[in-house]
């Protein structure tokens, strides 16, 4: 059974940084982990994703150059380092996972419909 536990959210001033963590377990096949976010009244949007096959990454345009997704395979944990945070980054952040029978390739920002497994979410609030 796949389980994802996300954590690390909090309250930060604009320009500050936070690091989110996603502890993953239960994957059998090559997989991708992604971070999504959902602000009040808005649709859930993909932020970043990373492949377990080759470590390739992809980002939404809105976070490129500010956010970095990475993984520590020894801890089965994926991180989202968020720098230069803006008030518009305020949202609940969710990690999500999906598997592939073959090599997992990521080449663009993640889409909600692609992901089967979800964490419980962690709140990020950025004040101006």
Mind explaining what this structure looks like?
It is a single chain. The protein has 128 residues and is mainly beta. The chain is built from no helices and eleven strands. It has strands at residues 3-7, 10-13, 18-25, 31-38, 45-51, 57-59, 67-72, 77-82, 91-99, 117-118, 122-127. The strands form two sheets. Strands 2, 4, 5, 6, 9, 10 and 11 form a seven-stranded mixed sheet that branches. The radius of gyration is 14 Å and the shape is globular. The protein starts with a strand and ends with a strand. The relative contact order is 0.33. The mean pLDDT is 96.
The end-to-end distance, rounded to whole angstroms, is 41 Å
Instruction: Spell the H/E element sequence.
Output: EEEEEEEEEEE
Global geometry: globular
The description of the largest β-sheet is: 7 strands, mixed
**How much helix is in the residues?**
under 10%
Structural class: mainly beta
Q: Report the β-strand fraction as a percent range.
A: over 45%
Specify the number of helices.
0
- Rg, alpha carbons: 14 Å
| Poorly predicted runs of 5 or more residues | none
User: What is the strand tally?
Assistant: 11
The overall pLDDT average reads 96
